Every structure is written in structure tokens, then in C-alpha cells.
Amino acid sequence: MEQKKEMMSINWYPGHMTKAKRMMQENISLIDLIIELVDARIPLSSRNPDINELGKNKSRIVLLNKSDLADPAVNKRWIQYFTEQGAHVLEINAKNGNGIKAIHGLVQEACKEKIERDRKRGIVNRPVRAMVVGIPNVGKSTFINSFAGKACTKTGNKPGVTKGKQWIKLNKSLELLDTPGILWPKFEDRQVGINLAFIGSINDDIIVMEELACDLINTLQERYEGIIGERYGITAKGKAPEILEQIAESRKCYLKGEQLDLAKAANILMDDFRAGRLGRISLEQP
């Protein structure tokens, strides 16, 4: 699929990555904790691999955002996977606030050694400073707004912080650094680009939707057999293009005359998947 190769080159900006990495490196000494957001449906494709290296000596929280759209059994496996890597992990939905209240307790747990060290040195009530990271469209801004709520106050620039950086004071015990640049995923693996296109993180205008829909059909037939037939009341037998035609017929997607409108059927399938109407689906497993 040449279109997808083009898609990846359009969305891959090494200059942005270099700048974002430099900003993270400049600020990493100021923080105690990294809070990383990933999309629960594609936790590996929706993260930046450099974060592990940049934050190797910091406490880590991984938030599986949009977890209510992902397969609950697979979510549990991802929690185990990231926990084994030394992170604290939580399922959340930044949009409706699910799981958000539990984060404060998780921050205290993740930073208990730092808090204990401070206490022994006579430093009491110094807030934990956290950096929130995540690739574009993973829900980072929604999370910060949901987590901070209306109570947040901007405390202005701290010494040593690049001009324009803002710290958000959430309460006496936690401050967030808002937000050190944009970190892009790495598209070295073609499947990463396809996975990001599935969840809508890549502009649909540069994608041939029928091809993307066929890729999704193949993935779903392999991992969640029966889910397409059930949703659209079709047999869902045959190759992906034939199944897309069945969806078009089922949803009465026609151009003039009797010709099937496969582009419309592809959009219906993609919208249904992204909105969770096909069920809770994970596209990656540990």
C-alpha cells in the first residue's frame, strides 16, 4: 500500500522529535515523576520509545487512556507488562473522568521513596513535580484539563525553567509541568503507522479509507472473529474487499444506480470501530 508509506513520511518530522527531546532533557532534572499517556488499544504504537531512555532514573506512571474502548482482558495484560518494566499503571478515560481520582494516590505511591528522603532531610510538604508526556492525539490536553479541573493555578516560571514554561499547581502535594513539547512515535515499523491510522491519529484526508478498512477487517477477522458479522448482520465470509462489499450492501451504501459506495462503507466501519460500537477491541497485545 503505497499510500500508507506516503502517509508515514508526511507525518514523520525528525526536527520536531529533536526539539522535543532537547526540551525534555532540559527539564528532566526539575521533575520527580513522568506521567505517560498511551492509547489503551495500541499502547506500543502510541508511545515514544525515547521516553524510556530520557526518564530512566525517574518514577514512572503509565496511563492507559481510552481504556473503556479496549479489550478488558488485554488491558490487564498491559498493566502487568508495564508493571514488570517498573512503572505504575492505571486504566483511565480522560474524557469522562474515569480513573482520574485514583491518580493522586498513585503519584504518592510512585514517589514514596522521594517523599521519604525529603522527610528525613527535614523537607516537609514539598510538592511532587511531574512531567506529562504523550504523542499527539493520545488525549494529553484532555487529561491535563480533567486532572487539573478548575482548581488549578498557574504558579509562573520556576528558576531554571525555559521562559514560557508553566507549572500547574494541582494541590499542595503535586505540580505538573505543562507540557514539554511534542513527542512523535517512530514509524520504523509500517504497522505503527497503520495502527495510528486505525484510531484516527493520522489525518484521514491522506488515507485511502477503503484500503485502511480492509486492513482493519483482516485484523478483526484474525483476533475478534464474528464481531463484524454480528454488527452488520452479514456472513462476513471471504476476503476483506468482499466483506467491505457486504457491509456496503447491509448499510445500503450505493452510488447512482446499483453501484456500491465502498468509500462510504469504509467510513462507517472506521467510525464504528473508533467509537467502540464494534465492542471493546485491542489491536496490540503484550
CATH architecture of the largest domain: 3-Layer(aba) Sandwich
CATH topology call of the largest domain: Rossmann fold
Compute the number of structural domains: 2
Helix content: 40-55%
Order of helices and strands: HHEHEHEHHEHEEEHHHHH
| SS strand fraction | 5-15%
**How many H/I helical runs?**
12
Overall, the morphology is elongated
Alpha-carbon Rg, integer: 21 Å
Low-confidence stretches: 1-13, 156-164
Overall residue-averaged pLDDT value? 86
Structural class: alpha/beta
Number of strands: 7
User: Which strand order spans the largest sheet, edge to edge or round the barrel?
Assistant: 3-2-1-4-7-6-5
Terminal CA distance reads: 26 Å
Largest sheet: 7 strands, mixed
What is the CATH superfamily of the largest domain? Answer: P-loop containing nucleotide triphosphate hydrolases
CATH class wording of the largest domain: Alpha Beta
Describe the structure.
The chain is α/β, with parallel strands linked by helices. It folds into two domains: 10-178, P-loop containing nucleotide triphosphate hydrolases (Rossmann fold, 3-Layer(aba) Sandwich); 208-274, Conserved Hypothetical Protein Ylqf, Chain: A, domain 2. Helices cover 42% and strands 13% of the residues. It contains twelve helices and seven strands. The protein has helices at 2-10, 14-27, 50-54, 72-84, 103-110, 112-120, 140-148, 190-198, 209-223, 227-232, 240-250, 262-274; strands at residues 33-39, 59-65, 88-91, 128-133, 153-154, 166-171, 174-178. The longest helix is centred in the C-terminal third of the chain and has 15 residues, at 209-223. 36% of the residues are buried. The model is unreliable at 1-13 and 156-164 (pLDDT under 50).
